Hints:
Distance between the termini: 34 Å
Number of strands: 0
Shape: globular
Number of helices: 9
Largest sheet: none
Order of helices and strands: HHHHHHHHH
Mean pLDDT: 90
Radius of gyration: 18 Å
Amino acid sequence: MANWKTYDKGDEMPEEYKKLLLNLMSFQADSEYAGAQRVAENMRFAPRPEEAYRLSKKVMEEMGHGYYVWNLMSDLGVNVDERLQHLVQNPDNPDPAKVTVINGFRKENWSKLFECWEDVALFSTVVTPAAVAFLGQYRECSYLPWARVNVRIHKEEYGHLAFGVWASKRCIEFGGEKTREFMQKRVEKFMKVGLGFYGRPSSGDGQSAMFDKYYEYGIKVKKPEELQEEYLELLESRLKEVGLEMPQGVEADYDMRVGYEAADLDVQVSKAAS
C-alpha cells in the first residue's frame, strides 16, 4: 500500500482532495439511503413474518449507512438536510443535480430485477459480496473519519450477505429442488450487477478517468481488478454454501453502477458545499 497522507476531522486539505472526497462520499451516502428505499419496496414479496422482520432490519441499517456518511459530509460544509429531503420527496426519480444515486438504485432499473422473494434473497447473496469488497476498501482510505465509519458499515454489509444466504437457504428449504433450479437460473442477472459494482478496469478501454486521482490521494485504495478478485472469491463461497453454482462467462453491467458523469458530480457537490 502506498504511503498516502492522511487527514482527520478539522484538518486542512487540498481543494482537489476535498472535491474528490465529497464526490465519493455523496455517491455512497445518497445511494445507501436510496438503496434502503428500494429494499423497503421488496417487503411486498416477504413470504413469512421472520423474512419480513429481517428485511426491515436491513432497511434500517442501509438508512443508517447514509446517515453516518452524511454526518461526515455535514462536517465538511455540505447541506445534507437538503439531500435527505430531496430523496424523501422524490424517491422514484431523484434529480442528479441534487443527489448522487447509482443507476441500480433508481426505481426504473431496480424494479426490473425483482419478481419474487427468491430474487430478494439472491440480491443479498449475489450482489452484496460486491458491496462488501467495494466499501471494505474505504476502511483504509486517507480520510480517517470516513475510514472509521466504514469499519461499521463493512461489518453490517457482511450481515446483509448473511441475510441473503439465510434467505436463499430458506427458499430452497421450503421449495425443494424445483426452487433451487429456479434460483440457479436467476443468479446470472444479479451477478451482472455485482461484477459492475466496482467500476471498469483501472487500465485499458473504458477506464475511469477519475480513478488515478482517487488512487493517488488514497481515497480509493484498491483497483477494480483487485476488488473483482475479492468479489468472485466471496461470491463462490456463499453460492456453494447455499447449494448453487457460480455461472461462467458473465459480462459485467457497468451501467447499473454508474449514475452520473464526474463533471455532474463536481457541479452538484460544489453547490451543496457552497
